[in-house]
Amino acid sequence: MRSSCLALSLLALIPLCHAFVGNTLSLRSASAAALKHQLPHSTSLAFPQPRPACRAKKSTSPHMAISVLGALTAPLVAVAALGTLDGFGKLLINLPRIIEYQFRYANRIMQRGNGCQPTEAIDVLRIKLDESKEYRFNALKLFVKYDTDEDGKLSIDDLNRCLKNEFPQGVTDGMISSLVDAMDSDKDSQIDCYEFLSAVSGSSKNADKLLQEARESQLDSAYEECKKLTSEYAKTFFLATLAMEPLQAKATWAIYAWCRRVDEIVDGPKADPNPETQRKLLEEWMARLDSMWSDRGGQAGLDSFDLAFKDMLQQYPGSDIEPYRDMIRGMQMDIDDRRYETWEELYLYCYRVAATVGLMTLPVMGTAKGVGVDDARTPAVALGIALQITNILRDVGEDARDRGRIYLPIEDLKRFGVTEESIFERSRNGGAVDENYRNLMKFEIARARQYYKEAEEGIALLAPGAQLPVAVAAELYKGILDELEKNDYDNFNKRAFLSREQKLLAVPPLWLKTITGGWEKERKEVEDKERAQAEV
């Protein structure tokens, strides 16, 4: 979430509270002329001649908050408003001097009281910044972040949460009370966007329009977070999403981010090692899923990833909740240090943690004309099974060494004369693989390729725009199996992966096959062959 500009502006409000509870700042002298000289030329401000200082009687009024607010927020408002301009660097370098000068100016305001005309060039700077749509827009981003029920208002509790979360080191109850008093102009214990903008930037102009834009920007930022997560943790998969239509890619990133976060509960580097804690967290995740699915509670308790996920569900109403529930159940299977006796047991695990992804993305991908979602389910599941087998084969050594886990079915190990002890030994100490292990890997690779074959036969059932990314995903993961073979089936001492060049070179032939109707032709050939065999 890009809320740094607004965070700066709210941070600027905190000294205001100090001014309310006790004007005890000790300030060194600073030069206004130096400030004017050092401000970046890119601001293009025309500074008028200062007006004579008024001789107002010293007093303190309720309007003093606005005057002090203007003085204290000006330099940080400048950072927020000018953050994308060339002058940002100069302004940032001089920020300590500017802040010091502004505190000095704030003290003068407190001493002179209300009613004085602007006497310094910085007053003109703040007026210019108050007219900045960009700054007010950024200010509302944080408002939207904490307006979880989307009613255009922040309760006092929301404001408390906002300040304590964004500035945990500097906020006290007294400060928050002062801010509420300054913002809550109609004394209804609710801070609406107009009051918020008036207090933060001195203007509530175009608040409704800016509020809607801020909400849309928040959603865009949420999808960007999902994109970043996908590109960081699933490079091969992410490359496939780049072949999708933009809306499909965004939805797929949101789905991946949801899946990744479930996996992190059990398998992440920060996962709690206590199985009972993991079970409890998964139960909470299931409840969170049900709440988002039923649209209960608005945005309360949701983070940026959740916002993107929830929007994805609204964009693709044909989504089914069961694949998501099944994935959580799959993670529950992964909690205990259990082994899979048979392929059927491992298949169930693969279905829950991987094949479900194919079912999740089906509504996003869409199907070809005349093809129902149910018709495309079987190849979608097959692709998920193939991908998970590939992951298991690639990571045999890593899983045994780092997690003490072996996912390969016990019946397969016995069939090829491979012991669990030998796998753990090689994972810890290295050493060449023997012929028994090679034969085991050949068997598992053949199984995976059979599922890839089933998946590729179903590519023609997908909508034209979805065929290429699915084909790319299948081809790139198949390439990992090829690399495992080139490594002499050694997944203890070497990691099977495709280079960037290999990935890029794999795409053009698939693109050509897709645009020329190659997947449809292959499927028709398979159907004709099956029909001929049935007649015989």
From TrEMBL:
It catalyses: 2 (2E,6E,10E)-geranylgeranyl diphosphate = 15-cis-phytoene + 2 diphosphate. GO terms for biological process: carotenoid biosynthetic process. Residues 1-19 form the signal peptide. It comes from the Eukaryota. Keywords: Calcium, Carotenoid biosynthesis, Signal, Transferase. Its EC number is 2.5.1.32. The keyword Signal applies. GO terms for molecular function: calcium ion binding; geranylgeranyl diphosphate synthase activity; squalene synthase [NAD(P)H] activity. Pfam families: EF-hand_7, SQS_PSY. PANTHER family: BIFUNCTIONAL LYCOPENE CYCLASE/PHYTOENE SYNTHASE (PTHR31480). This is 15-cis-phytoene synthase. It comes from Guillardia theta (Cryptophyte).
